[in-house]
Structure formats: structure tokens, C-alpha cells
């Protein structure tokens, strides 16, 4: 902490200066924007000529010798941001929270081992790259949180995330400056973000969030800058910001699907922009077409190209079989070195007399499996169990027979609509179903193994149907989606994905579903196929092309995402918890002897955000009402209303887009999902509070309102700094007793009972 | 006297009358056939029966007004509620007036047609367009099917249309302000009713609010109106459109709760406090039981978490296995679990750790927040018997206490004196719990009189206390039990024990508890004691000194609890053969089989009129194209339409296309099992669009007379085709006449439609 003190004093002083300086912001903007040839010049000078601000001109005159204080401020923001984020970056020297996933995935890239994750690959690729560049060799196993790193070089990956995270306050500063042309607003935003413990914590570890937020903020910044260039269309800088926006969008989407929200934000803005251009009757339709095509190029085609490139690199790098194989289809697996399907050869069409394995098409669907165990008493008929099993073993092998036992000499191919009997190779029981309720899915029929040496009854007959096929079609190994319809009852073989209890060895339930729906749960895929009488062909010709791989991996990712359902026993974080800072996340350590890090936003900062959100809505509705009602307003107020409506509206939209969709998600949610929305909220806070304080002259006369303005800023600054001093152990780690005991560094700070530190 | 002639001038819209008559005829004829339970009647019927018997229930599928309206029909027809709604197709007995059960939805459905007519007129369309809209609604087979049975969609659509119509009357109002605001009030009432019938009514309500706020915004911008007038008008609108619906919504619940006085099948979902306000059930048991829990009290402790099911703290004569299947060890002490059924093993005695006795002093010493207690399991037969003799035990509880002593596992134990014998103290220790190894095991500590360790001390923490020294009250206090030694809280873990634990719910002690986690909370449900003065049988009166003065639970508390339960209770997602997704509705991919005759092929399906369905989709597409072209052209400075015509076109779009979108898009985000009938409100909006769009095309887009004539001919042909297809599909709508297999095959226009065929 001793390091922190002088730092915060320093900020205190500079803030003070800036508070004074920002009175003459409008004076400076022209200075700054001269080289930019800023179109805002017009309304800024309008501000200048305001009669209501006598003190203001004097003030600015006395400071006129400053050339570019914005540069000084920017350097200050950058410095503080980097120092708070990089401080104690190596602590704690063990795996924290989700580092166990993303660190591991970074290692997979270094080892080139194929894995499966629900997020697109860019974030993990960058983590892997950062690790590789800083001398990490990919050998650390990242088994569980709390594992010591010891001699492994982990700081590179953390440092990379922290550096990206350090850009967030800087970007926020620039965005707000661009939107409001007020250094005060920009500085308020930067301060709130720099001294937010949550923002610091989430950017200090090997996580996807700092990378994601970096791209989100970069996209918003470039979009705002691009808008700024609208009076110089098709100039070099115009193109530059357009391309940067597109690149950032691709980056955001490439890290997590949450990036879609910022794409939506940019999309809506672009649509509004195009609509404005369309309404500009001085432009011809050809001009409009040029604008339109440029945006299609920069914001759709370029990101798409980059996004596909990311996946190209992903699949090119990960070419060895690994833990992710089972999630993908058989055809996909044949691409991976070390997988048993790689360079394998087998007969191309399913034939009678073949030995096969069948894999369910559901995500992480298992192989049709049976073993020498019966269903227990009380679970349907006491016959042999049929399950779905995720690992490869000899109990997954099935023989394909004709309904009658006659075995003809020449191998005939199985066709769509044929009746077959499937005999389990190991136990010689037939795949059988009957009208008993299934063990877990009560509305389905039970599937059992029945008969001996392949002799069963009429309930052992299944009709082969190739999805989308017609009568007489052949069944392609690996490629055809096969449905097995039970002849007697008309139900289809179904893998529900539910886990059987102990008696079923915790394998997955297999049932016969009476609901004939096109669902992957009832579709199967023939994976291994042995038939000595048929010529083997190399299945490398079956290898899917890149587009198919891309589509499949997306389907798998999306299904994986929606498959992350909250478990009953786990306490689920609700979206309404987040803005009120109801509950954080334990990053490391539980007991009083451990080094504890707790992800929780600085409550003063977060509650200020919440307060300003309400304030913003109030202010903007008052302003709109006044304008709609046609009340006479001073030019300054009109300008404030414009900033509130356009700048604030953009940020509010960003907040809504990054927050509201979580209410409709049924997947498991975590506190850290709120952080992108929080960034938008803090920028909105900057604008709102700045305009609120500048409107102090509604209440007081000129000299006093100026004092109130400065006083308000001071109070805000001190509150943020003091709360940061109080709560900084949450981010930088704490040892010793828990907060409810008196000796703790957090004693008395457990303001909400739901905080767990 | 009579200077002027007595004149009655009546303007009768014959068109409207004819339409109403036709509509009533299509919806009401042969209403009581089939005399069998049709589709969801089986679901709504059980609630109607419960209303007739005035038994409390919770239905998470929708709010209460819909059920009440159905029940009203049943009440008028003299239905006594004695019918087992157990399967679709079951015949109604002769005593049931089927006609009256189905009457109200049918009338509501029939009234939708004239409403459609009036609504189109109110959209400033011609009478011809209005006629077209009404005919489209009239001949829509799906609306007819849905109206003719005891189902709620027709009632919902009726209220939605009436709300829209009355709002437009208000907005277009040329009448006196009083009359205008009467229309607005009616609009508010209809919105409240629509949301009260089905939650999906909210979507249309939101649309209406959107339109209304746009109009209000324009009003605010109108500088010819004075500030005061603007304020008054805004307040009036807010009251009518916001306050009235909300109040009405609550009012439905008020009626609901005042009607349903008796305890019933869903009692256990509710808190003990709620249950005790119902007649019968828990309140019969708890009536007259002491209020304050004292040292020596005998109590049952119910977990406040009703997920996955309500349960009571329980122990039984079985120990934890020495080793679990995964090799971990246990304490091998007596199991403590949470039992979803009420039985004698759920009884616990509150004991003062510093005293030996298990009886209550006189006067009783209440247990207060922060006190340290022991919980002793088990009751003696002496107690039970004496209680039994006391007479306050109802035979209503066959599964309980002394009545079924023959099934007690404690028979031997019950007959002995508790002070001398072994008893079980609830305790916890640093042994991992069986299913959730991160938490501590909770067990019954055998022989607690000998080794008095501190392992079985629990601190009482009353969560909803008002004062620090609040005493522990049965039913109303929500308590946590904090283990003194380890400061872990007693918790229902939510997982079930395996066979060795008889599949009861696991109970653990967990150190890290969240303040709000409901699984840590427990409530005393049943409570009794007797004093040291002697057995209760002797002076039964003395034991019940501070009788539970029946604190009536306020309506507001009951309403909020019921509302929360309705929104949070989740039924397991069930697959259904006829379920469909929103995108399939637009193309009518699936039908729903509602009923099939027992012996013949006569059957009823929810299936729309395919032609009008197609026409509606076409006009939806056309509107989108036309409006986009208009918008772009306006933006480029071409004014094709007069401002009034443009406003009219936009208004039609808002009501029809907006209504369609609001009633379809939200379903895309839902994960519920959805059915084709969820699309009907959206379809109704869409049917209003077609004639208005045709009129617009005719008046504004087509300039040459030939084209206009061609359009008229097209419209007439389309109408004729719609009539034909209505006629064609009507056997499936009315369930008669019976169709042969071939005829069914002819009707099967899409492969995905599923008609039933009885095997000969």
C-alpha cells in the first residue's frame, strides 16, 4: 500500500489542475482540432461566445500558455492505468479461477493439440502466442485453480492480458472526449475505470475478458472517430478508422460470441448513419451507393474475412488429436493426427455382415454401447442395458444383420428403408425395444439388449432411415445421418444425454422416442466399419472441406454454449445482481491462510454508475420534454441536451445491448459477464456527471456555481480514491483473517452480506 | 301534450348484424358436440372443478382471470366440479352441461368478428375493407376451433381487439371529452383483463402502450394546447392505461383468493403462513397450536426451499454407511435427511443444553434469536398417545403420528421414557457429507446423554426478526440453525440420497452461506408441547396457553407470494407430439389433433384455413415491401402520398404488422413448449391487414381503371377460395361429418400435417 499513497496524492493534485483546466476546454479544443480540421469547430465556438460565463474566459486567458493539456492528461491516464494494472502482476503465483481453462488452452496451441471450447479461438490463440513469445513452453498442466506455477513462465500471458486491459481506461477517455468534447467528462470516466477494483482484477489474469473488452472498446473508439470524419468522406483517415472498426469487430467476435453485441451496436449506428446520408439530398444516389459499399466492405466483408482467417489459423495450428475430438463428428476427427480415424480406411457404404460403431449426433453424443449388466429391478424389463458411452471400447461394436438369420455369401449393401437387426458383438444380444417406460425419460420407451446368439423376437427389428434420403439410398459411412426406427412401435432410437445412476455406470441413457422429430439426439452416424468382404477405401477422401469444418465447429460451439446450464446445486448469478454489485467472484483462495483475490467492483464506483444511470434518464427526459414543449433554452443547454441525447444515447444503447440480452439467456451466467456493459455505463457516468455539474448555474449565480462545480469534482475524486484505498486488497490480494474478524484488512468493509471475502 | 311526434331513429348497420349472426352461428352451432373432453379442456377442466369446490391451487401457466371466466360458465351451467379430468376423449357424464362450459369462450370468439369489422372502420378504412376483415376472421378455421371449446385464446383475442378498438375510438374521438375518456377507461380495463387471461396478452398491451405514448408525445409537442391541459391529459392517460390495468390485475387475484378458501393439492408449494390461511390442510393441524416455540417444544421443521420439492427435516433408524461407494468414510451415525412426506420421523424436540428435561416449564420459556439449543429427535409413544387422547388430532391425517403407529420404525423406542433412554441430538462434524463432499455431514448423535460434547449445539438465527430478542414463532419465523462449533449452517443441499438413504433429500451443514440462500432457511410447521404439570391428557387446556391467535395473512402478502410462486415454479419441460416452433407457425407446418371419436374417423384438428393463411402472409410481405419503398422515396424527397394518407398507412402498419410482430417475435426467445394456438393473436392482427392493404393499393397505387378492376376481381376470387377452403376443412373443424381415409388423404395438403386414422 505504501506505493499507492504518493500515487494517489499525485492524482489528487493533477485532478485539481485538470478541474481548473477543463473550464477552458472549449478554448483548447480548437487548438487541438486545428490540425484535425475538426468539424465540431462550429458549435464549440458557439459555446465560446456564451455570455453567461464571465469567469470562464478570464480563467482560460490566464492559462493560455498551455499548448496541449489534453496530451498531458492522456499521458497521465495512460501512466496510471498501466501502473495499476501491472502492479503485482505475478501475484498470486498459482492458477486463479478460469486461468485453469484459458491457460490450458493457450498451452494447447503451443503443443498443437486439438481441444474444444465454447468460445471462438482468437483469445486463446493470443494468450498462447503471448506465452510462446515470453518463453512459456506449454508444459504446465493447469489442472485446477490453486496449482503453483513454480518455474513456469506465466507472467507473459498475464502481462499480455493486463496490457490490453490497461488500454480500457485510455480508450474510454478518448471515446468520451470525442463524444462530449469535455475533458472533465473524459477524466471522470478514466478515473472511475482506473480505480475500479473489479476492472483491475479482471484484467490481471489469463482470461478472455480483457482481450474481449479491448476489442469492444477499440471498435467503439474507431466507430466514434470514424463518425468524426464524416465531413471528409473517403479521405485516408476516414478509411483508416473504417478499417480499424472492422478489424476490432472481427477481434471482438473472434474472442467470444458476446462480441456480437458490439457488432450490433456498430451496425445500428452505421444504419442510422446511412439513413442520414440517404436523406442528404445534396448527395446523389451514386454517392450513397459508394458510401454503402464502403461500409459493406469495411464492416462486413473485412471482419468476415478476418474471422474466417482466425479459424483457418486455428485449424492449421491444432492438427493433433486431443481432448476435444469427442465433441466433433467422425468426419471431423479424421483430420486430426493421432486420431484412429486419421488416414484410416474402411468400406464406404454400410453392408450386411459388417461390424460397426454408431455415434450419436448430439453434441458430445456417445457411442451406442452395451455391456454384461441388466437393468435393475423396477426399471422396465430386467434385460441387458443399452447406453451411450463417450469413450471408445470394444463394447461399442455392433453387427449388422438381416431380419432373418440367413447369411448370404455376397455382402449386400444396406439401403434406406431396409429392416435390420443389430447384434451386440460382445454379448450377442440384439438391440431391442418395447413398450416399457425408459429409466429416466419416462415418456420414451426402454431400449434393451435381448435374445441370445442373435436370436430374438420381432421387437429386435429396426428400420434404417437416412435423413433426407429416399427409398433405396445407400448408407454412407461417416457422412450419412442415420435414424433407426423401431418397426413394432414406430419409435426412434434416441440418446437423451441424461446420465444414468450408479447401476448404469453413469453412462448416458438410450431410449426409443415416440416423437418423430428431426433432432440430432435421434440421429446416428456410423463411425467404424469393418467388413472383410468389401474393399476398403481411404476415408481421407471423405475429409470435410474447410467450410464444413467451420460450420460444424460453430454448431458445436453454439450447442456447447446453450448446454452450459446451471446445475441445481450451484448458486446461479442473476443479471439483476450485477449492476448493484451484489456479489463477486472468488478468484483465488477461500480460507484465512490462503492468498485471496476477490473479483468485486469498487462499490463506490459501481453505485455511482447506477446512480448516474438513473440521473441520465431523468436529465434526458427533462431535456427532451423541454425541447418538445418548445421552451426557450440557452445555447449552452441546447448543446448539453445534444451531447446527452446523441453521445449519451450511443453509450446507453451500448450498455443495454451488452446487458439486457443476458436476461434471455438460459445458460449459466457469471458476474464477469457484466464488465463490457460496465464500461459503457462508466462512460455514460462521465458525460452525465459532467453535464450535471456544469448545469450548476441553474441553481447558483456565476461565481458560486463555478465553486460548486469544482467542489463536486473534488468530492467525487476523493470518494473514488478513498474507496480504492479501502478496497484495493480485493484486487491486489489479501492474507489473514476473513473480513468478519477484526484483524482483517477488510474488517468492516463487508457492506453487503452477500460479499464473500 | 305531445307536441312533437315520438320518433325513434335507429341507424342499424345491417352488415354488422349479419356478420354477428353468421359469426354466432359458426361458433355456437352444435356447441356441445363432441360430448367429450377435447384437448386442453383436460387441463383447464381440473381448475374449473377446483373453483367449483373452492379449493386452492397454483397454476404457473397463466394468471387467474382466464380460469375464473371458464369457471363462471361452469357455474352458470350448474357444474358441480365432480368430474375426473383425466384424459382427452373421455365422455362427459350426462349431468354435465357441456354447452355452458364452452359458452363463454365461444361467445367471445364470435364477438371477435364484429369487433374486427369495427376496428377496421376505426382505422379509417372503408366499409368494404371492414367487411373483408370480418369475413377473413369469420372463415378462419383455427379461430373457430379454438373458440368452440373450453380454451382461453378466444377470450384473450376478444379482449385484445376490444382494447385496440376502444383505444382507437378514444384517439379518433370526436365526442365529448367524457365519452372519449370512457373509451380510454374501457381500453385500460380490457388490457387488464387480457393480461389477466394469459400472460401473452402483455405483448399486445406493450404495443398499445407504445402507440399511446407516441400519441402523448405528439400531444406534448402541440404548442397550441396549454401546459395545464397537457398535464391533465397526460395524467388521465397514465391512470387509464397504466394504473387501471395493474389494479385490475391485482383485483383478479383478490377474487381468486377470496373464492378459493380450502386447502388443496398445491398447498405444499406455499409457505406455512400461507397454508395456515386456508381452511383444512395445515391450518386444521396448526389451529390452536402454541405460537411461541419454547424449550421442550416438539416441532416439525420444514425447509423453506420448495425446490426440488417441499420437505421436512427427518431422521430415521438407519446409519450412514461406513464407507460410501467411492471409498470415502462417513461418521456411521444415524442419518439425517429431508423427507418429502409427512411422517412421525419428522418430529424434533427443542432442548435447553443446560437442562436435562424435555418438558416445557410453566410458564414456558420461549426460545429467542441467538439462543443455543439442541435438537432431539424422536417422540415417545406416551406423548403421542396422550396427544391422541386429547382429541385434537384429526383422522384427516391418516399418515401421521399415532394413527399409523403400526408402521412406525420406532415402535420399541416410542414406548420408553425419553429421559432415561437413548435419544438423538442433531449434530454436525467435520466429516464430508455423502453427496456434497464440500459440506459437512449432519447426523443424529446417538447416546447424547453420556458424552455431552458441544458438537450438537446449534445457534438459532431468526432471519425475519423485528427485534434482536425476538422469540421463535411457529409458522411465521424463518430461522437458520448455525452449528456452534464450526459456524456452519444447516442446509438442504438439493440432491437426493441414494438407496441407502431411501432417496430422501440430503441435508448438510455448510460454512459459507449466503445471506439470502433460501436452502438455509427452515420454518416450524407443526408445534406442540405440554408442561411439567403433567401429561397433556389430564389438563389439555393448560398446554395451549398462548394459542396461536390466528393471524390472518394480509391479502398483499398472499398475493405477492402466490405471484412469485407462479412465476418461479417450473414444470419440467415436456415434449409434446404436436408442439411447434414460431417459424413453423407462419407456414402452418403442424396441426394439433384435438379430439377423435371413439369409434369412427370423426376428428377435430386445430388447423387454419390454408388459403387465408397464405393471403395473410402475402399481405405481410407486401406491406413490408411497400413501406420500405415509401420510406426510401420519402427520404429522397419524393412525396407519393399526402401526409394524411401516409399517416393512415403507418397507423394500419402499427396496429396490424406491429401487433403481429409483438405476438410472434417474443416467442422466438422463449424456451417453453409452444403450440400453434399461440400464433392465433398474431394471426388475428394479420387478417386485419389484408383488406386495408388492398384498399390502399386500390386507391393509391393503381391509377388505371383496368388495374383497379383486376384487383377487385382478384380480391373476390381470393374471398371465394377462402370460403371454399373453409368449407373443405370444416369437417376437421366441427368434427362432423366423419371422413373416410381417402377424404383425409385429400385434405392432407402438407406432408407434415398429421391426421389420425382409426385402424379397421
TrEMBL record, chain A:
Top EC class of this enzyme: transferase
InterPro entries in the record: ArnT-like_N, MIR_dom_sf, MIR_motif, PMT-like, PMT_4TMC
EC number(s) stated in the UniProt entry for this protein: 2.4.1.109
Localization, UniProt: Endoplasmic reticulum membrane
Alphabetized GO MF terms: dolichyl-phosphate-mannose-protein mannosyltransferase activity
Biased composition (Polar residues): 50-60
Membrane topology according to the record: Multi-pass membrane protein
Broad class of where this protein is predominantly found: endoplasmic reticulum
Transmembrane helix keyword on record: yes
Gene Ontology CC entries for this record: endoplasmic reticulum membrane
Disordered, as annotated region: 26-62
Keywords annotated in UniProt: Endoplasmic reticulum, Glycosyltransferase, Membrane, Repeat, Transferase, Transmembrane, Transmembrane helix
Pathway(s) this gene product operates in, as recorded in its UniProt entry: Protein modification; protein glycosylation
Compositional bias (Basic and acidic residues): 33-46
Name of a matching Pfam family: MIR
Sequence intervals crossing the membrane: 114-135, 155-177, 211-227, 239-272, 292-318, 604-627, 647-665, 707-727
CDD domains, alphabetized: beta-trefoil_MIR_POMT2
Ranges in a coiled coil: none
Catalytic activity: a di-trans,poly-cis-dolichyl beta-D-mannosyl phosphate + L-threonyl-[protein] = 3-O-(alpha-D-mannosyl)-L-threonyl-[protein] + a di-trans,poly-cis-dolichyl phosphate + H(+); a di-trans,poly-cis-dolichyl beta-D-mannosyl phosphate + L-seryl-[protein] = 3-O-(alpha-D-mannosyl)-L-seryl-[protein] + a di-trans,poly-cis-dolichyl phosphate + H(+)
Similarity annotation: Belongs to the glycosyltransferase 39 family.
Protein name: Protein O-mannosyl-transferase 2
Amino acid at each position: 500500500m505504501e506505493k499507492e499513497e504518493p500515487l494517489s496524492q499525485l492524482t489528487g493534485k493533477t485532478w485539481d489542475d485538470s478541474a481548473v483546466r477543463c473550464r477552458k476546454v472549449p478554448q483548447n479544443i480548437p487548438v487541438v482540432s486545428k490540425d484535425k480540421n475538426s468539424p465540431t469547430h462550429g458549435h464549440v465556438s458557439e459555446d465560446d461566445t456564451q455570455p453567461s460565463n464571465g469567469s470562464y474566459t478570464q480563467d482560460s486567458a490566464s492559462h493560455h500558455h498551455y499548448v496541449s493539456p489534453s496530451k498531458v492528461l492522456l499521458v497521465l491516464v495512460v501512466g496510471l492505468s498501466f501502473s495499476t494494472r501491472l502492479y503485482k502482476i505475478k501475484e498470486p503465483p498459482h492458477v486463479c479461477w478460469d486461468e485453469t481453462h484459458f491457460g490450458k488452452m493457450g498451452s494447447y496451441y503451443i503443443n498443437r493439440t486439438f481441444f474444444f471450447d465454447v468460445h471462438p479461438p482468437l483469445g486463446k490463440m493470443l494468450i498462447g502466442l503471448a506465452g510462446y513469445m515470453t518463453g512459456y513452453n506449454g508444459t504446465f498442466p493447469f489442472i485446477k485453480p490453486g496449482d503453483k506455477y513454480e518455474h513456469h513462465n506465466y507472467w507473459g500471458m498475464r502481462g499480455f492480458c493486463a496490457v490490453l486491459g490497461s488500454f480500457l481506461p485510455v480508450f474510454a477517455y478518448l471515446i468520451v472526449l470525442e463524444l462530449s468534447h469535455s475533458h472533465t467528462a473524459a477524466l471522470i470516466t478514466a478515473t472511475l475505470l482506473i480505480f475500479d477494483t473489479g476492472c483491475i482484477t479482471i484484467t490481471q489474469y489469463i482470461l478472455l475478458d480483457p482481450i474481449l473488452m479491448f476489442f469492444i472498446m477499440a471498435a467503439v473508439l474507431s466507430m466514434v472517430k470514424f463518425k468524426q470524419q464524416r465531413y471528409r468522406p473517403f479521405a485516408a483517415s476516414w478509411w483508416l478508422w473504417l478499417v480499424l472498426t472492422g478489424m476490432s469487430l472481427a477481434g471482438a467476435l473472434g474472442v467470444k460470441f458476446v462480441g456480437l453485441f458490439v457488432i450490433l451496436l456498430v451496425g445500428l449506428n452505421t444504419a442510422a448513419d446511412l439513413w442520414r446520408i440517404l436523406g442528404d439530398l445534396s448527395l446523389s444516389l451514386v454517392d450513397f451507393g459508394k458510401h454503402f459499399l464502403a461500409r459493406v466492405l469495411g464492416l462486413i466483408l473485412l471482419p468476415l474475412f478476418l474471422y474466417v482467417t482466425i479459424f483457418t489459423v486455428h485449424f492449421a495450428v491444432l492438427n493433433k488429436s486431443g481432448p476435444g475430438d469427442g465433441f466433433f463428428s467422425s468426419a471431423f476427427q479424421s483430420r486430426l493426427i493421432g486420431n484412429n480415424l486419421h488416414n484410416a480406411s474402411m468400406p464406404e457404404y454400410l453392408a450386411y455382415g459388417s461390424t460397426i460403431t454408431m455415434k450419436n449426433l448430439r453434441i458430445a453424443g456417445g457411442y451406442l454401447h452395451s455391456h454384461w449388466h441388466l437393468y435393475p429391478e423396477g426399471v422396465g424389463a430386467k434385460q441387458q442395458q443399452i447406453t451411450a458411452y463417450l469413450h471408445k471400447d470394444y463394447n461399442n461394436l455392433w453387427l449388422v444383420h438381416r431380419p432373418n438369420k440367413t447369411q448370404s455369401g455376397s455382402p449386400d449393401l444396406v439401403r434406406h428403408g431396409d429392416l435390420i437387426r443389430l447384434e451386440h458383438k460382445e454379448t450377442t444380444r440384439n438391440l431391442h425395444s418395447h413398450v416399457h417406460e425408459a429409466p429416466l425419460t419416462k415418456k420414451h420407451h426402454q431400449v434393451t439388449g435381448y435374445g441370445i446368439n442373435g436370436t430374438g423376437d420381432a421387437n429386435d427389428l429396426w428400420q434404417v432411415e437416412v435423413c433426407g434420403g429416399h427409398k433405396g439410398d445407400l448408407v454412407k459411412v461417416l457422412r450419412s445421418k442415420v435414424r433407426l426406427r423401431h418397426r413394432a412401435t414406430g419409435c426412434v432410437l434416441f440418446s437423451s444425454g441424461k446420465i444414468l445412476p450408479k447401476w448404469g455406470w453413469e453412462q448416458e441413457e438410450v431410449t426409443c422416442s415416440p416423437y418423430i422429430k428431426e433432432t440430432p439426439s435421434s440421429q446416428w452416424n456410423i463411425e467404424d466399419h469393418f467388413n472383410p468382404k468389401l474393399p476398403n477405401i481411404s476415408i481421407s477422401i471423405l475429409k470435410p472441406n474447410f467450410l464444413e469444418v467451420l460450420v460444424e465447429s460453430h454448431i458445436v460451439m453454439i450447442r456447447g454454449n446453450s448446454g452450459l446450464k446451471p446445475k441445481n446445486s450451484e448458486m446461479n448469478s442473476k443479471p439483476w445482481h450485477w449492476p448493484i454489485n451484489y456479489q463477486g467472484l472468488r478468484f483465488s483462495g477461500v480460507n484465512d491462510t490462503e492468498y485471496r483475490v476477490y473479483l468485486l467492483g469498487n462499490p463506490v464506483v459501481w453505485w455511482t454508475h447506477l446512480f448516474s444511470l438513473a440521473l441520465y434518464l431523468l436529465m434526458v427526459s427533462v431535456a427532451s420534454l423541454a425541447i418538445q414543449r418548445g421552451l426557450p433554452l440557452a445555447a449552452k443547454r441546447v448543446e448539453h441536451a445534444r451531447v446527452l441525447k446523441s453521445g449519451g444515447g450511443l453509450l446507453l444503447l451500448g450498455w443495454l445491448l451488452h446487458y439486457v440480452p443476458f436476461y434471455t439467456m438460459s445458460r449459466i451466467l457469471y458476474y464477469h459477464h457484466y464488465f463490457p456493459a460496465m464500461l459503457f455505463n462508466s462512460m455514460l457516468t462521465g458525460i452525465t456527471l459532467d453535464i450535471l455539474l456544469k448545469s450548476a448555474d441553474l441553481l447558483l449565480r456565476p461565481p458560486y456555481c463555478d465553486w460548486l462545480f469544482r467542489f463536486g469534482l473534488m468530492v467525487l475524486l476523493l470518494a473514488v480514491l478513498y474507496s480504492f484505498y479501502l478496497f484495493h486488497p480485493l484486487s491486489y490480494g489479501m492474507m489473514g483473517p476473513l473480513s468478519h474478524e477484526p484483524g482483517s484488512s477488510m474488517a468492516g468493509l463487508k457492506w453487503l452480506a452477500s460479499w464473500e471475502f | 301534450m305531445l307536441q312533437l311526434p315520438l320518433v325513434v331513429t335507429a341507424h342499424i348497420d345491417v352488415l354488422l348484424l349479419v356478420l354477428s349472426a353468421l359469426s354466432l352461428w359458426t361458433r355456437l352451432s352444435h356447441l356441445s358436440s363432441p360430448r367429450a373432453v377435447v384437448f386442453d379442456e383436460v387441463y383447464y377442466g381440473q381448475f374449473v372443478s377446483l373453483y367449483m369446490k373452492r379449493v386452492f391451487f397454483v397454476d404457473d401457466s397463466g394468471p387467474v382471470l382466464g380460469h375464473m371466466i371458464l369457471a363462471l360458465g361452469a357455474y352458470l351451467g350448474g357444474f358441480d366440479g365432480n368430474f375426473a379430468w383425466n384424459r382427452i376423449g373421455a365422455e362427459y357424464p350426462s349431468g354435465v352441461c357441456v354447452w355452458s362450459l364452452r359458452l363463454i369462450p365461444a361467445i367471445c370468439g364470435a364477438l371477435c368478428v364484429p369487433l374486427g369489422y369495427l376496428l377496421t372502420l376505426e382505422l379509417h378504412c372503408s366499409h368494404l375493407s371492414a367487411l373483408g376483415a370480418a369475413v377473413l376472421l369469420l372463415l378462419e378455421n383455427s379461430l373457430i376451433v379454438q373458440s368452440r371449446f373450453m380454451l382461453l385464446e378466444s377470450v384473450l383475442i376478444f379482449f385484445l381487439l376490444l382494447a385496440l378498438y376502444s383505444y382507437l375510438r378514444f384517439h379518433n374521438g370526436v365526442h365529448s371529452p367524457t365519452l372519449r375518456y370512457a373509451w380510454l377507461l374501457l381500453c385500460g380495463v380490457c388490457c387488464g383483463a387480457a393480461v389477466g387471461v394469459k400472460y401473452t396478452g402483455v405483448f399486445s398491451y406493450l404495443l398499445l402502450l407504445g402507440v399511446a405514448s407516441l400519441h402523448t408525445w405528439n400531444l406534448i409537442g402541440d404548442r397550441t394546447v396549454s401546459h395545464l391541459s397537457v398535464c391533465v391529459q397526460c395524467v388521465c392517460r397514465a391512470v387509464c392505461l397504466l394504473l387501471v390495468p395493474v389494479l385490475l390485475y391485482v383485483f383478479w387475484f383478490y377474487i381468486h383468493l377470496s373464492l378459493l378458501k380450502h386447502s388443496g393439492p398445491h398447498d405444499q408449494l406455499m409457505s406455512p403462513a400461507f397454508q395456515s390461511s386456508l381452511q383444512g390442510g395445515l391450518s386444521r393441524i396448526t389451529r390452536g397450536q402454541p405460537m411461541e416455540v419454547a424449550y421442550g417444544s416438539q416441532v416439525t421443521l420444514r425447509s423453506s426451499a420448495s425446490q426440488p420439492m417441499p420437505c421436512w427435516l427427518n431422521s430415521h433408524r438407519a446409519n450412514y454407511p461406513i464407507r460410501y461407494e467411492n471409498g470415502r468414510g462417513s461418521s456411521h451415525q444415524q442419518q439425517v435427511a429431508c423427507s418429502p412426506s409427512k411422517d412421525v420421523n419428522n418430529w424434533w424436540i427443542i432442548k435447553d443444553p443446560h437442562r436435562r428435561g424435555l418438558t416445557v416449564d410453566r410458564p414456558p420459556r420461549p426460545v429467542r434469536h441467538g439462543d443455543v439449543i439442541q435438537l432431539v429427535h424422536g417422540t415417545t409413544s406416551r406423548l403421542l398417545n396422550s396427544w391422541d387422547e386429547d382429541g385434537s388430532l384429526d383422522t384427516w391425517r391418516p399418515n401421521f403420528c399415532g394413527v399409523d403407529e403400526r408402521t412406525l420404525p420406532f415402535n420399541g423406542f416410542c414406548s420408553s421414557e425419553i429421559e432415561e433412554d437413548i435419544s438423538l441430538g442433531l449434530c454436525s462434524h467435520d466429516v464430508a457429507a455423502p453427496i456434497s463432499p464440500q459440506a459437512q455431514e449432519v447426523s443424529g448423535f446417538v447416546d447424547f446423554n453420556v458424552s455431552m460434547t458441544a458438537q450438537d449445539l446449534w445457534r438459532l438465527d431468526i432471519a425475519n426478526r423485528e427485534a434482536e430478542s425476538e422469540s421463535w414463532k411457529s409458522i411465521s419465523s424463518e430461522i437458520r440453525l448455525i452449528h456452534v462449533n464450526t459456524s456452519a449452517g444447516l442446509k438442504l443441499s438439493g440432491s437426493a440420497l441414494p438407496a441407502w438413504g431411501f432417496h430422501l433429500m440430503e441435508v448438510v451443514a455448510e460454512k459459507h452461506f449466503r445471506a439470502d440462500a433460501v436452502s438455509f432457511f427452515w420454518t416450524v410447521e407443526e408445534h406442540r408441547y405440554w408442561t411439567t404439570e403433567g401429561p397433556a391428557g389430564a389438563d389439555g387446556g393448560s398446554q395451549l396457553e398462548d394459542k396461536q391467535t390466528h393471524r390472518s395473512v394480509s391479502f398483499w402478502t398472499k398475493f405477492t407470494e402466490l405471484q412469485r410462486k407462479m412465476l418461479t415454479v417450473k414444470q419440467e419441460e415436456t415434449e409434446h407430439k404436436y408442439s411447434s416452433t414460431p417459424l413453423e407457425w407462419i407456414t402452418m407446418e403442424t396441426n394439433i389433433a384435438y379430439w377423435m371419436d371413439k369409434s369412427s374417423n370423426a376428428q377435430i384438428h386445430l388447423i387454419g384455413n390454408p388459403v387465408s393463411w397464405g393471403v395473410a402472409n402475402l399481405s405481410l410481405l407486401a406491406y413490408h415491401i411497400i413501406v420500405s419503398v415509401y420510406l426510401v422515396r420519402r427520404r429522397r424527397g419524393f412525396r407519393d402520398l399526402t401526409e394524411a394518407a401516409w399517416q393512415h398507412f403507418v397507423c394500419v402498419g402499427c396496429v396490424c404488422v406491429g401487433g403481429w410482430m409483438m405476438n410472434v417475435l417474443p416467442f422466438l426467445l422463449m424456451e417453453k413448449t409452444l403450440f400453434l394456438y399461440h400464433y392465433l393473436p398474431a394471426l388475428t392482427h394479420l387478417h386485419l391487414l389484408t383488406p386495408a392493404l388492398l384498399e390502399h393499393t386500390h386507391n393509391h397505387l393503381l391509377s388505371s381503371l383496368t388495374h383497379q378492376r383486376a384487383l377487385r376481381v382478384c380480391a373476390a376470387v381470393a374471398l371465394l377460395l377462402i370460403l371454399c377452403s373453409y368449407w373443405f376443412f370444416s369437417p376437421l373443424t366441427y368434427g362432423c361429418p366423419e371422413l373416410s381415409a381417402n377424404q383425409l388423404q385429400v385434405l392432407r395438403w402438407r406432408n407434415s400435417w398429421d391426421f389420425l386414422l382409426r385402424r379397421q
